[in-house]
Structure formats: C-alpha cells, structure tokens
Amino acid sequence: MRGDTERLNLKTVKEFFFCYKERNFQMMRSNLYYELTYDNLMENIGEYIQNRRDSFHGVVYEDIVEVFQAINTSKENVKLSEFPDFIFEKGFIEHFEITSSKESRKGSAREIDQFRFNKKIMLEIEEFNKSCNDMKAGEIKSKSWIRKDVPHSYENLKESFKNNLTKHISSADNYSGEKDLKIYLVEYGDFGIEMCEDIDSNPNYFAKNKRKPDYCWNYRLSKDKNMLRYIYNYKDKINYIIMNYHDYCEIIKVASIPSIIKYMPYDYIITGRVNIIKSSRVNSRVGFNINN
After folding, report:
1. Three-class SS of residue 76?
2. Which residues 6+ apart lie within 8 Å of 17 measured at CB?
3. Whole-number Å distance between alpha carbons of 151 and 8
4. What is the pLDDT of residues 185-198, one digit of tens each?
5. Which tens digits make up the pLDDT trace of 241-253?
6. How many CA atoms lie within 13 A of 149 on its CB side?
7. Between the CA of residue 24 and those of 15, 33, 166, 185, what are the distances in Å?
8. Residue 113 above 90 pLDDT?
9. Which 3-state string (H, E, C) describes 81-134?
10. Residues 6 or more apart from 139 whose CB is under 8 A from it?
C-alpha cells in the first residue's frame, strides 16, 4: 500500500524541476506552490529547463514538456493497494526504491541497520531532550552519534534495480488503465556508490582529448552504460525513467538510450564504499527582551 514515501518522492521531483531562484521563497512557504496551471507551466518552462539542463538525457523540448505535464498533473491512485502509484490523463508514474546494500525478504541491509540504530539511540535522545529543559536563553546543546554504514556494491545495485523493474513492469502489463505514457520514478538514496570515467576504455579518445576523468561521488544512471543497455530492452514498456538520488534528479528517455551511450566516450568504473554516518540533535533556547 502506498503512502508517504511515494508522495515525498514526487514532491522532491517537483521541488527539483519546478523551482528556480525567483520562486524559492514561495516554494518554502506553501504547498499550493506546485498547483501550476498549464499556462503557468508553459510560461516558466524555459526557466525550469535552463536551471536543470544537465538533468535531461536523450530528450528534446517536446519530451520535457510531456514529462513536466505528467509530473504536474498526476494524482494519487485512489486504489491504494493497486498499481500504479500516480495517474494522469495519458498514463502513469510508478515509484520504486533500489539499494546498493544487501537485500533480503526483510528489506535492505541499510534499512535494517537504520531501524536498529534508531531504536538503540531512542533512550539517549529522550535523555538529551530532557537535559535541554533547563537551558538558558542563548544556550545551545548538541549530541552526535557516529557509526559505520553497511557495505555497498554495484552488484547489489544492479540486482536490486533489475528485480524491482521486472516486478513493476509485470504489474504494468496487467494494468488496464491508460498507459500511452509510462514513467517510472526510481529512488536511490543510499549514497553508497561512486563512479569515475575509465580512460583506459578508450585510449584513442584520451590521446586526442586529454582531460581530467569525470568523477561522480554518487551514482548516476545516465552514466552507467551497462544498466542503460539493460533498460533499453524494455523500450516498448517504458517511456521515461526519472531518477531521484536525494541530492539530484534526472530524466532519461529510454528510446534514446543508444544515442546517449554513443556520445559517452568512456565506460565508468563503478564501485561501492562504506560510509561513516553521523546523526545529530541540536536544541537551542531563544530569549526575547520586551520593553514597554
């Protein structure tokens, strides 16, 4: 059954694509900000595209308009336990999450570790909050917890992506509603994968165009030739993939994947890492002097 996770992901995508500096204040103040009319969307679409121009892969202007209209007009499926998550006039948006940690029937190793950690420090958080009751005006108190993240690997990420994608495509095949436009919103928030161009994969190109290899601190599907080729096998079942990495979003047109790969001079070395995670709590007491 869908819930806050799906709504939050679509909200994150809207914040990323439908916000530019002149309207930041409005975005922060009101949920009504995203209730854009067709005219409002089209009036500002040039700003939206320019502000996020590096997020579009294999698309032309008309494609971006199509996806933006879908994002803007989609509504939650009233049948909460049924496919898809969101519906619009021409099709659907379906959300799923992938992980680069080990996955089992109980969930991903990262989710399980996070749950156990939150449970472990719950009493300490309560004690910290109680210790802040007697704070003086202007005083600030903080407490931090540091732990080692679970291991991450590219193999885990590939397996998670493929398993989830095939499962949701199977649901789409059985869906009787409108599906002229099929969009999958994929969430990856582990921050457990890094990528770097492999200049040895194209030595002739490097000899002519010597430059520093592109490095990505977080995973980007648009640079992963292996997964792009896999997804292209489903070009008749997927029109667009929207990736939400929590720090960035991108839109990939599946039918254009061969062209996307063609203009990538290098393969990428893709590897997992083990992060150090810091969780913090900060309380402050603000005081005001009121003079008659």
Report:
1. strand
2. 48, 52, 55, 68, 71, 249
3. 26
4. 999 999 999 999 99
5. 999 999 999 999 9
6. 21
7. 9, 10, 38, 24
8. no
9. CCCCCEEECCEEEEEEECCCCCEECCEEHHHHHHHHHHHHHHHHHHHHHHHCCC
10. 284, 285
